[in-house]
TrEMBL record:
GO terms for biological process: protein ubiquitination. It catalyses: [E2 ubiquitin-conjugating enzyme]-S-ubiquitinyl-L-cysteine + [acceptor protein]-L-lysine = [E2 ubiquitin-conjugating enzyme]-L-cysteine + [acceptor protein]-N(6)-ubiquitinyl-L-lysine. InterPro entries: E3_UB_ligase_RBR (IPR031127), IBR_dom (IPR002867), TRIAD_supradom (IPR044066). It is an enzyme of class 2 (transferase). It comes from the Eukaryota. The lineage of its organism: Eukaryota, Fungi, Dikarya, Ascomycota, Pezizomycotina. This is RBR-type E3 ubiquitin transferase. SUPFAM superfamilies: RING/U-box (SSF57850).
Length: 350
């Protein structure tokens, strides 16, 4: 269980006792809740609430063990820090007694086989002991900072148990795990209720799509609307997105006028051409319209002319070459030029 850095200050001696008491009460409440619900459902099909309570009970038990071990370690460290001077004095006296005895034995015998104990060894043991005492004392003097985090090197401010729980929830894994099949689903989908890519749609559990009816009651209105919009978006073959670069929202087919191919964004109201995905052409034909291209190819093969003002195709069946388009522009049909500059037309047909 990952938790925040906890700083145990000397002026809060009952800090761990309060934490352990609070955890003990929570564990007792969970035990009562789980025992009360026994026999009310099938053993192999427990309700989601019981599964959640069981997982939470395991987490609290693990944290309870961590705090218990911490209190035991702190007790040992405090004892060493408090009795360190006395232990050091007793050990120094024992070392002196051992040295005096060795010297006495060496002076009281003339046996050449008896040699004094090596002084270097005694000195090395003494130095190691003194270093150990110094290290323990230094750690205790540093206010017994206990760090549960792998990526933090400094102790943070003291926090209550509720604050640490909230901070821990923010640092949870970025994946959820299904309690039935241990299938892992990225949090990005679950938190936004809209898959970032089509590869994540539809959401699945045990490789089977999850019906929206099963999860809709767990969503707020905004999340449900985003999910339903994603359903329409990823099931639409030709997708139209808002041409406004600051918006880019998907435009549902119901907001597209089939006659003018005008797609209106529900968020910013921008009109987008449903043919080329650019801004709507406001009364003009889209140059990428395949039907328009076919019409122009037909007009060219049939010798039809096009109005130079509005690009409307015009066919002359009877009458003179003086053409007046629906847009009000006038031109000569024989050479597709304006009537007042045409020099090749016969005057009797004008």
């Amino acid at each position: 269980m990952s938790a925040s850095t906890v700083s145990v200050h000397p002026h809060h001696p009952n800090f761990l006792d309060d934490e352990l008491a609070a955890l003990t009460l929570q564990l007792e409440e969970l035990r009562i809740i789980l025992e009360t619900g026994k026999g009310k459902h099938a053993i192999d099909n427990p309700p989601d609430t019981d599964v959640a309570f069981t997982h939470y009970q395991v987490e609290l038990a693990e944290y309870h063990a961590v705090l218990h071990d911490q209190r035991f370690a702190q007790s040992m460290g405090t004892a060493v820090h408090t009795d360190g001077s006395l232990i050091e004095a007793l050990t120094s006296r024992d070392v002196l007694v051992h040295d005096d005895r060795s010297i006495a034995l060496n002076m009281s015998t003339t046996d050449p086989d008896i040699e004094a104990p090596p002084a270097a060894l005694d000195l090395e043991l003494q130095n190691n002991y003194e270093n150990w005492i110094s290290s323990i004392s230094g750690n205790i003097a540093a206010k017994s900072v206990v760090d549960f985090s792998d990526d933090e090197s400094e102790a943070g401010p003291s926090m209550t148990y509720t604050e640490r729980q909230a901070n821990t929830l923010k640092k949870l894994s970025t994946e959820f795990e299904c309690v039935a099949c241990t299938n892992r689903v990225p949090r990005a989908f679950s938190s936004t209720s809209r898959p970032a890519t089509k590869a994540l749609y539809p959401p699945k559990c045990c490789r089977q799509p999850i019906p929206l009816a099963l999860v809709a009651r767990h969503m707020v209105e905004k999340e449900l609307a985003a999910f339903q919009l994603a359903q329409i978006e990823y099931s639409t073959r030709k997708k139209i997105y808002c041409s406004n670069h600051d918006c880019g929202l998907f435009i549902v087919p119901s907001r597209i006028d089939p006659g003018t191919q005008r797609a209106t964004c529900a968020q910013c109201g921008t009109a987008t051409c449903a043919i080329c995905n650019n801004a709507h052409h406001q009364g003009k034909d889209c140059p990428d319209d395949p039907l328009l291209q076919e019409t122009k190819n037909l007009a060219q093969s049939m010798g039809w002319q096009t109005c130079s003002a509005c690009d409307r195709v015009v066919e002359l069946r009877t009458g003179c070459n003086h053409m007046t388009c629906h847009c009000g522009a006038e031109f000569c049909y024989c050479r597709h030029c304006y009537i007042n500059v045409c020099e090749g037309c016969r005057r009797n047909r004008i």
